Amino acid sequence: MSFLSVSRLAPKLLNSKVRLFLQYNLKDVLADLIPKEQTRIKSFKQQYGKTNIGQITVDMVYGGMRGMKGLVYETSVLDPEEGIRFRGYSIPECQKLLPKAPGGEEPLPEGLFWLLVTGQVPNEEQVSWVSKEWAKRAALPSHVVTMLDNFPTNLHPMSQFSAAITALNSESNFARAYSEGVHKTKYWEFIYEDSMDLIAKLPCIAAKIYRNLYREGSSIGAIDSNLDWSHNFTNMLGYSDAQFTELMRLYLTIHSDHEGGNVSAHTSHLVGSALSDPYLSFSAAMNGLAGNDVKYVNLYDTHIVVPGYGHAVLRKTDPRYTCQREFALKHLPNDPMFKLVAQLYKIVPNVLLEQGKAKNPWPNVDAHSGVLLQYYGMTEMNYYTVLFGVSRALGVLAQLVWSRALGFPLERPKSMSTDGLINLVGAKSG
């Protein structure tokens, strides 16, 4: 049976899988999925709501709640041994399964966003719909452009990025609907609209900041509705190398999410739980991301430092590092900086193991991304976190839609004083 003949069948004769396949509007797909997920979670909570899923130790309380199971975050899970999985799919699986641009080999971030939102691998038509939808929503309001143009050149790019996102709050559909008393069952629809608008506009904000700081304020140009999100972004940045666009597709895909407990994801989750709109929630997340320090480790007790080794959760080589290494082996195998990074990959873990200086001596994503960006001419290291921020929107905003769809309440953990903990431990041990 042809696709055309199937599409002409009466909707009631189509099963749910076929209906979802025929839907290219992401909001329509969500409208089908959300009631099913609400029912599934309600049933699960009714049956197992009082089940104990772990113990909390004093070390966890003092250690930044590390290791505590205290959040529901649907879009990705970080396994200490195998790394990140986006809705159950590993990075190599996403590279294989997600649609690519014509002639391209790397996954399109639009496809990953569809996967993060729906849990389903999209087809090319669905990804094309997302690309065109983001192109349609990309224009910045004039007051944001004016603000960006008036920032001093010594204001850090991440500060500019966060401020511009906050200022976009003037455009929030959710904020308006909430002030008008919209029913909570409709919250997700307005969060979805804001999230789509914000993701669409982020490359324009990021490119404007880049051009103002590093390209003498030259114009970012216009969005081309026939190009994908990453291609428009690299065009606005002023890069025409097709390989750099491919790198950006990979970069924006692999940095998109890293489970719910990291600083940026958790911040957006917390602020969003207070029913702040996506602009305010994501801006808060970016302020947290801007404060993340690259971790360094000393070798042989000298003053030499090696960035990008070790991770708070991972106990193996970060798969985000691995896929970037594979990209370099394919496109820039003879680059001197890549050769240096490759040598460090062979040397550093063994040294760290011998010295007993790290539980995880393996490289993380930060050990490789800078080399690739430098190779294609983006040498402005202060700007790299902005690229990270553009990517992270895909994960945290996909989750924000689901947080409101599932009616997650205000996040409010119980805190204790040291005296209170001492008394509690005494009572427990007594």
TrEMBL record:
Protein name, per record: Citrate synthase
Alphabetized InterPro entries for the sequence: Citrate_synth-like_lrg_a-sub, Citrate_synth-like_sm_a-sub, Citrate_synthase, Citrate_synthase_AS, Citrate_synthase_sf
Single GO MF descriptor: acyltransferase activity, acyl groups converted into alkyl on transfer
UniProt keyword terms in alphabetical order: Transferase, Tricarboxylic acid cycle
Protein family per UniProt: Belongs to the citrate synthase family.
A biological process from GO: carbohydrate metabolic process
SUBUNIT field: Homodimer.
Broad class of where this protein is predominantly found: mitochondrion
One GO CC term on file: mitochondrial matrix
CDD domains xref list: ScCit1-2_like
Subcellular location: Mitochondrion matrix
Record pathway: Carbohydrate metabolism; tricarboxylic acid cycle; isocitrate from oxaloacetate: step 1/2
